[in-house]
Each structure stands twice: as structure tokens, then as C-alpha cells.
Amino acid sequence: MTKQHISDNFNKTFGGVKYFEQQKRIALRNCGLIDPENIYDYIYNAQGYSALASALTDKTPVGIIEYVKKSGLRGRGGAGFPTGLKWEFTAKEKNPEKYVVCNADEGDPGAFMDRSIVEGDPHSLIEGMIIGGYAIGSSKGIIYIRVEYPLAVERLEKAFVEARREGFLGKNILGSDFSFDIEIRLGAGAFVCGEETALINSIEGKRGMPRPRPPFPAASGVFGKPTLVNNVETWANIPALILEGPQWFSSIGTEQSKGTKVFALAGKIQNTGLVEVPMGTTLRQIVYDIGDGIPNGKKFKSVQTGGPSGGCLTEKFLDTSIDYESLAAAGSIMGSGGMIIMDEDSCMVNIAKYFIEFTKSEACGKCVPCREGTTRMYEILTRITDGEGVEGDIEKLEKIGEMIKKASLCGLGQSAPNPVLSTIKNFREEYEEHIKLKKCRALVCEKLINYTVIDEKCIGCGVCKRACPVDAIEGKLKEKHKVIQEKCIKCAKCFKSCKFAAIKKDSGIQK
Question: Of 107, 264, 359, 479, which has the fewest Cβ atoms less than 10 A away?
């Protein structure tokens, strides 16, 4: 698989399609181009297992680790730790029994990066793990994948059978002295098990809860043995990196963030789907060049990177480079690759409440700052969106959020307040409108919406009046009706029942 071969394969199939013009595919290089259930297609059309053969015959374990270190590849699971260093730390452990683990527990709402790789190119994941096992001196691999991915599991199991049959997996791989095999462990869909120590607990049959570190998994992981944990996207980069060399990989991206990154582009955007771009690509390029902008002529409002633990960035950040350092400086994170676009009809307070509700419900409950802190933040946000916010609520949210970031045990807890803190920073006026004016300019928070009758459309049919449970609408039959705001409980039944669009929502705020 040479650099030119990757480009030829991809361009031959997708050349001329605007959506792909600014993309560069490494992790997704074979997805859609080969039959994922046919190992021979992977071997003959994607030079499958050539990197493994090269690793076993031409390179030493130390040499492979140096390759990965020089490439600048960083973990694609979210933290961005240098992959080569993680491999080196695990390799230096003296224990003869070590584990290689693939984290395929993809729990971000709307994320399907890892799932697509496993379903579309399972052998690249397997090949990457075998190379990793050879590099650190391990004979045991585990893929931890959520049970909600049945097709991915099915294709992995078929790929195992094929790889063992052809001598790529199992005893004495390719006639060498190296043996390595992989098994699957199914997760129950707990978001916290995306954190590597919680994942390790789950593999061991324990409740998925993070462990204090140190010791780090490289020293004491699965069953107390040295363990190397990388996510699917990281492993999928390894075969191409080994064949092409570290200079090729490091020539892509920025000074500190090398290679490409896969994102799941979703939300208020014309083109949704998977996007793989070189590090250093700007948010504007993804939103407008690849995503083709906001539908229905609406105005861009915010982009959230990093999934439910990420931050919401405004239009002024659209020219931000997509790399670990730049996103962190802007107040967000890379995360595993979720990217959600919001338009002018999005309420940022409600968005913050949605994500804090998710992290609250997915918290493992082990540490008090995360367990209690996210619950208190959710209660305050609910109060604000219900029109019951009071002066000081914003400051309480900021104080609790900073406490959670500083005191939570794991990275998931430490990043849980990000959506709230970033929306307060960038959209503070919306919080103030909710609290002081009891208004929602985006017309999303139902209890903060005024319902009024449009005189020229009302025919006096009385349907809305009959639907209202509190007699907040007055008017005689065949005469114009009126909503009594003092009585209205914001249930929206009048709005939903009117067949003539004579009831309108009104925030009362001049946009």
C-alpha cells in the first residue's frame, strides 16, 4: 500500500465528488472500496497484512516503536497521548504476560467513526493490533466493543476466522516465532467504559468504574498485567504508517498534531456523515466546503467538537485549526471525533442542559464531584429553561463546573462541564435572557414561549379554545380569538391544534 496507491484507489471511486475533495483518508482508506467480509479483497486490493509481514521480517520490536514515535501519531480516542510513548512504556515492563486492547466502546451521541472502520475494514484493525502485540511483546489481544454494534461484531468474528486460516492470527504467525490471538469482549453500552481504566474493569467482569492513576495501564492493566490500550482509529492507522514510513505520516497535519482525524459531522448541516481530514484543516472548511453550509438559509451559530464533553464554539472560531492544541486554546477538545453543528434556531442553554443530562445519567457514580456536581448543574439548567432561574445561577454553574473539572477522578468527569462552561462563555446573553427576561430567543424552551393569535389568519373556529386546558383563550365563534398571557401555561396545545397556522410562537426578544 503505497501513498500513490491509496490516492489512486480513493480518487478512482470518489474523484470529482465535492464532499471528498478536501478529505484525505488513512484510517478510512479501505472503507467502501473493499469487501469487509473477504480477506482476499483486503490482501490483493489493499495490500492487506503486508505491513505485518514487513514488521515480522524486516523490523525489530524496538524499530517498530521508533517508527510510531517518529510518525507523531497521537491517540485518536480523545486525550491525544503520543502513541509511540504509550507503546514504549508498555514494552519496557518486565512482565512476560501483556495485553493489547482495542477500545471500540464508542459512546458519544451521534458518533460512528470506529463503528464504520470495524464494519468496513475489520482486517486493518486486526493487523494493527497484531503489529502492536509484536512491538510490546504480547500474545493476547482483546477488542472491547459495545453490544449495540452487532454487524461490527459479526464481521470481526468472520475476520478472525479468515485471519487464522491464512496464518495471520494465532500460533507462529507467518511461520515466525511470534504468536498472537484476539478475543472479543462485549460492553453493555456504558459511556464511562470509554475511559480506559473503566474499560479494563469491565473486561475483568467488574463494574465499569475508573481507577485512580498511577499505576497506569501500561504498568498494571487487565488482571494486573501491563496493558496497551488504543482506540479503533489509532489501530487502523498502524498498517499504513508501517508501510509508508514515519516521514510520510508526519508530513501530514501540523507541527504538534500529525496525520488525519475522522469526524462524525452531524446536526444543522447540509452534508452529514464521516469526514477524514488532515490535522490543521479549519472548522470553516469542514462546515462550508465539506459540509456545504447550513440548510434552509439559516445562520451558523455554533459547532461543538469533542462530543458530550466538548465545547461549543462560535462563528469567530471558524478559522480555528483542527488540532489538539488549537481546539483546547479555543475552549473545546478534539475528543474522539464528534462534531455537531447548530444554527440560529438552537437554544444554547437547552443544548448545555441536554449534554449535562447525558453525562449525569452516564456517570458511574464513583466520585462525588462528578456524581453530585453534574446533578446539581442539571437541576439549575432545568430551572433556568423552565423560567424559574434566579440571579446567581450562572455563577453557581461556573463554580460547580470548575470544581468538577478539578476534582473528578477520570477524564470523562473532568470534561463533563465543558458544554455548560463554553456556552456560558460564548453565549452568556442567552443565559441572562432566560433568567432575567424569562425568554428563549430560539423558541426552544417551551415554558418561555408566548403564544399569540395572528388576527388575519384566525377564522374563529374555536379549536384552540377547546384544546386549551386552562381557559386561557377567549373569543366568540367566528370571531378573532385572543390568548390571555396571564393564564397561559405554555402547554402549546393551541399551537398544535390550529389547522390554519393562526397561532404563532413569540420570544418577545428583538433578534
Answer: 479
Sign of torsion over alpha carbons 400, 402, 406, 412:
positive
Give the integer Cα–Cα distance in Å for 73 and 85: 10
Note the pLDDT tens digit of each residue in 262-300. Answer: 999 999 999 999 999 999 999 999 999 999 999 999 999
Give the Cα separation of 195 and 209 in Å (integer): 9
The topology (CATH level 3) of 449-506 is Alpha-Beta Plaits (3.30.70)
Q: Where are the domains of the chain?
A: 34-250, 260-343, 348-437, 449-506
User: Among all chains, which residue has been given the C-alpha cell 499505576?
Assistant: 215
Cα dihedral: 162, 49, 126, 61 (round 10): 130
Does residue 61 have a cis peptide bond before it, meaning omega lies within 30 degrees of 0? no
Q: Residues 119-149: pLDDT tens digits?
A: 999 999 999 999 999 999 999 999 999 999 9
Which CATH architecture fits 34-250? Answer: 3-Layer(aba) Sandwich (3.40)
Environment class of 501 (CB within 10 Å of its CB; exposed 0-12, middle 13-18, buried 19+): exposed
77: confidence class by pLDDT, cuts 50, 70, 90: confident
Read off the pLDDT of residues 37-74 as tens digits, 9 standing for 90 and up: 999 999 999 999 999 999 999 999 999 999 999 999 99
How, if at all, do strands 273-278 and 503-506 pair?
A: unpaired
Q: Taking the CA atoms of the chain, what radius of gyration do you get in angstroms?
A: 26
For residues 10 and 158, give the distance between their C-alpha atoms in angstroms, rounded to a whole number.
Answer: 25
Alpha-carbon span 47 to 41, nearest angstrom: 9
Q: Tell me the DSSP string of 144-202.
A: EEETT-HHHHHHHHHHHHHHHHTTSSBSSGGGSS--BEEEEEEE---GGGGSHHHHHHH
pTM over 0.70: yes
Helices 122-136, 50-58: inter-axial angle, 10-degree rounding: 10
Are 291 and 266 a contacting pair, CB within 8 Å? no
Using alpha carbons, list the distances in angstroms from residue 162 to 28, 34, 37, 246, 492.
21, 15, 9, 29, 58
Q: Considering only the top CATH level, what class is 260-343? A: alpha beta
Q: Name the fold adopted by 348-437.
A: de novo design (two linked rop proteins) (1.20.1440)
Count of Cβ atoms closer than 10 Å to residue 117 Cβ: 28
Main-chain phi, psi angles of 446, to 5 degrees: -55, -40
